[in-house]
Structure formats: structure tokens, C-alpha cells
């Protein structure tokens, strides 16, 4: 997927938001990062257009928003609807959870994300695994195209 052009201002704002995440966002991020939800990659505080999504899974076209009390006002809810409409126009499904839902029912929130991510990924080809930094093993023997590293007990 080609990268969208992101202004330095948006990039800086996203970095600030990553450094100042709410308790609920931090809790959810630690869980998602540690458990890797069936190998689905999720990024946090990611710029998309003029917005910054709390969490995004590009392979499933899924955005996860964690909302605090500031989202209770009518004005903020209208802004959230515009934001969600933009994301939908870009092909994303948006899941919204309150801080309280994350803090009191983390397992339920994660299960809802897992189901939405797997539903969004159906029909899409699996992502290719990128090599680790450093290039990984380069097999110079053209007759053996399968890596049989017995010391690790793995094969691609």
C-alpha cells in the first residue's frame, strides 16, 4: 500500500499524541502490542488525511477510536460523525469505545476488535512477511529454495 503524503505538522501532532495517550489508550495499546491479535498489525496515533486515528489496522481497513468524556458534547459528536464519514469514504470501518469500556471490559473490547479485524481481512490476500532489518538469510544455493535452518526449527 503506497504511503499517503503527511505534512510535518500532522506527523509532529501524531508523535505528540503517542507520547500523551490516555490511560485507556495506553492499556489497550499495551494489550494489542503484546498479544498481536492473530498477527494483525495495528498502528497507534496514525495520520490519515486531516485526521489522526487512535489505532488503525490497514490490512483490515479498521480504525479504532477510544473516546473520553470530551466526546459527550453535541458539538464533538457532530465532529466525530464527520470524521467517521471521511474514514468510511476512505474504505475504513470505525469502531468507537469509551475510556470506561476499555478500563472495565478490556477483554470484550479486544474481542470486538478481533472480530472486526478478521471480518475486514476476509477475502484479502495475506500480507507478505517482510525480512528483518539486516536482510535476513540470503540463500546463494539456487537449487535449495527452502530455508531449512535446523537450529531454529523453522521453515518459511
How would you sum up this structure in a few lines?
It is built from five helices and four strands, in the order ααβββαβαα.
Helix/strand layout:
Layout: H1 8-19, H2 23-35, E1 43-48, E2 51-57, E3 62-67, H3 74-89, E4 93-98, H4 99-104, H5 106-121
Parallel strand pairs: 3-4
Antiparallel strand pairs: 1-2, 2-3
Task: Summarize this structure as a short list of keywords or feature phrases.
four-stranded mixed β-sheet, 156 residues, 4 strands
Structural notes for this entry:
Helices cover 40% and strands 16% of the residues. The chain has a single domain (8-121), classed as Endonuclease, Chain A (3-Layer(aba) Sandwich), CATH 3.40.960.10. Residues 123-132 and 136-152 have low confidence and may be disordered. The chain has helices at 8-19, 23-35, 74-89, 99-104, 106-121; strands at 43-48, 51-57, 62-67, 93-98. It is built from 5 helices and 4 strands; from the N terminus they run H-H-E-E-E-H-E-H-H. It has a 4-stranded mixed sheet, with helices on both faces. With 156 residues, the chain is an alpha+beta fold.
Q: Could you say how many structural domains there are in total?
A: 1
> How many helical stretches?
5
Percent in strands:
15-25%
Estimate the global geometry from the Cα principal axes: globular
Distance between the first and last residues' Cα = 23 Å
Structural class: alpha+beta
Amino acid at each position: 500500500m503506497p504511503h499517503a503524503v503527511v505534512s510535518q505538522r500532522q506527523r509532529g501532532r501524531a508523535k505528540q499524541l503517542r507520547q500523551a495517550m490516555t490511560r485507556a489508550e495506553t492499556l489497550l495499546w499495551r494489550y494489542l502490542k503484546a498479544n498481536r491479535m492473530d498477527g494483525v498489525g495495528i498502528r497507534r496515533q496514525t495520520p490519515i488525511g486531516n485526521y489522526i486515528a487512535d489505532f488503525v489496522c490497514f490490512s483490515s481497513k479498521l480504525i479504532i477510536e477510544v473516546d473520553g468524556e470530551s466526546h459527550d458534547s453535541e458539538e464533538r459528536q457532530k465532529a466525530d460523525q464527520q470524521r467517521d464519514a471521511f474514514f468510511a469514504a476512505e474504505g475504513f470501518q470505525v469502531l468507537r469505545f469509551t475510556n470506561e469500556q476499555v478500563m472495565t471490559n478490556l477483554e470484550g473490547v479486544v474481542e470486538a476488535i478481533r472480530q472486526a479485524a478478521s471480518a475486514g481481512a476476509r477475502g484479502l490476500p495475506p500480507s507478505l512477511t517482510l525480512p528483518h532489518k539486516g536482510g535476513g538469510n540470503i540463500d546463494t544455493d539456487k537449487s535449495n529454495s527452502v530455508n531449512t535452518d535446523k537450529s531454529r526449527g523453522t521453515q518459511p
